Amino acid sequence: MKTISCDGKDIIPSKIICIGRNYVEHIQELDNAMPDEPVIFLKPNSAISHEIVTHEIDAIHYEAEISFLVHDKQLSAVGFGLDLTKREVQSNLKGKGLPWERAKAFDNSAVLSDFKPFDGDIHALRLELFINGELIQYGGTPLMLYKPSEILEEVSKFMTIADNDIIMTGTPKGVGVVNKGDVFVGKIFENDDLLVDVEWQVQ
Question: What are the DSSP calls for 82-107, one per residue?
Answer without folding.
Answer: EE-B-HHHHHHHHHTT--SHHHHSST
